[in-house]
From TrEMBL:
Reactions mediated catalytically: a secondary alcohol + NAD(+) = a ketone + NADH + H(+); a primary alcohol + NAD(+) = an aldehyde + NADH + H(+)
Main location per the UniProt record: cytoplasm
Protein name: Alcohol dehydrogenase
Signal peptide: none
Cofactor(s) listed in the protein's UniProt record: Zn(2+)
GO MF assignments: alcohol dehydrogenase (NAD+) activity; S-(hydroxymethyl)glutathione dehydrogenase [NAD(P)+] activity; zinc ion binding
Listed GO biological process terms: formaldehyde catabolic process
Family: Belongs to the zinc-containing alcohol dehydrogenase family. Class-III subfamily.
Species whose genome carries this gene: Paspalum notatum var. saurae
Domain spans labelled Alcohol dehydrogenase-like N-terminal: 39-168
């Protein structure tokens, strides 16, 4: 059920369809949900396209927080502003936007530091509510429905804080640029901002999904001479080459530890390694694959189990560095527009990461494809 075009009167609650998760790993159910009006400094967005990120699947399967159901997942999305809340001056009805799972208030200690993208007011939201009032904007028959990352784009309409949205040009394809609101940006930023990959360097990437391939692309654009892709799926070899991978290793086909192979073909270890799987055990392997003295390991993946990282202190004592990366270090409002421009100018690849285009009504198919490792990104198209 579509909402009426917003007018000068205050926005009212609307009813639309959303794919609701009622329990961990349970198929999403198309429900009629009520979406509340945007509160102060919030906007309500008509979702145009949303892609399924691995972290959506990980959180959907998780039994660690069973109280956060029913829930609307999704965070990698593009849409059009349908209405604005009190105090919003940056956005107007009809503006095309990207949603982002971390915001930028531009006034907190982290935002003004220039050293971090971890906004203290609009950081990663883990409790399934809005930043502003710790309440939800979704309900089904009066029952509250939780959010995911304060975005929840598996819905025809959603409400986000205005600090968690970025205006984009109306000329960019909304069904492709949505990938920049998480996965592609995370990979490029890990290579450029967090590791600062240098010309002529060697790089090892564990996991060649959307994020890993974007790391490879970023390393290639920085002039890395050797980019090693590590993945247990042999089909990723050809895909990796298209994004800059020069050497491919399938750990399942080895008779020795993968870190030994990497150290041998890089003459002592890679200059940079990236963990893009979401496996804390691989963090240690990536660290061991780095060079003594200056090797940098960046971890990007969201762990499915065992969130604790374990590594021998000797790897750090000998000069290796282990770093974490959230959204590639990008500050959403300050930095994301430049990435959109690079995409528009064909300086970065995005389109080739979309392996499936799926109608909203078939969203469960995209989850199945992700679980079966048969896709990179499924783009979900909302009814228009």
């Amino acid at each position: 059920m579509a909402a009426a075009v917003a007018s000068s009167s205050p926005p009212a609650a609307i009813t639309c369809r959303a794919a609701v998760a009622w329990g961990p790993g349970q198929p999403l159910v198309m429900e009629e949900v009520e979406v509340a009006p945007p509160g102060p400094m919030e906007i309500r967005v008509k979702v145009v396209s949303t892609s399924v990120c691995r972290s959506d699947v990980t959180a959907w399967q998780s039994k660690a927080q069973p109280d956060l159901f029913p829930r609307v997942f999704g965070h990698e999305a593009s849409g059009v502003v349908e209405s604005v809340g009190e105090g919003v001056t940056e956005f107007h009805v009809g503006d095309p936007v990207l949603t982002v799972f971390i915001g930028e208030c531009k006034s907190c200690k982290h935002c003004v530091s220039g050293k971090s993208n971890m906004c203290q007011k609009l950081g990663l939201e883990r409790r399934g509510v809005m930043h502003s009032d710790q309440k939800t904007r979704f309900s089904v028959k009066g029952k509250p429905v939780y959010h995911y990352c304060a975005v929840s784009s598996f819905s025809e309409y959603t409400v986000v804080h205005s600090g968690c949205a970025v205006k984009v040009s109306p000329t960019v394809p909304m069904d492709r640029v949505c990938l920049l609101s998480c996965g592609v940006s995370a990979g490029l930023g890990a290579a450029w901002n967090v590791a600062n990959v240098s010309q002529g360097s060697s790089v090892a990437i564990f996991g060649l999904g959307t994020v890993g391939l974007s790391v490879a692309q970023g390393a290639k654009l920085r002039g890395a001479s050797k980019i090693i892709g590590v993945d247990t799926n042999p089909e990723k070899e050809e895909k990796g080459k298209a994004f800059g991978v020069t050497d491919f290793i399938n750990p399942d086909a080895l008779t020795e530890p993968v870190q030994q192979v990497i150290k041998r073909i890089t003459d002592g270890g890679a200059d940079y390694s990236f963990e893009c799987v979401g496996d804390t055990g691989i963090v240690s392997t990536a660290l061991q694959s780095c060079s003594d003295g200056w090797g940098v390991t960046v971890t990007l993946g969201v762990p499915k189990t065992n969130p604790e990282v374990s590594a021998h202190y000797g790897f750090l004592l000998t000069g290796r560095t282990l770093k974490g990366s959230l959204f590639g270090g990008w500050r959403p409002k300050s930095d994301l527009p430049s990435l959109v421009d690079k995409y528009a100018d064909k300086e970065i690849q995005v389109d080739d990461l979309v392996t499936h285009d799926i109608a909203f009504g078939d969203i469960n198919k995209s989850l199945e494809l992700m679980l079966e490792n048969k896709c990179l990104r499924c783009v979900i198209h909302m009814p228009q």
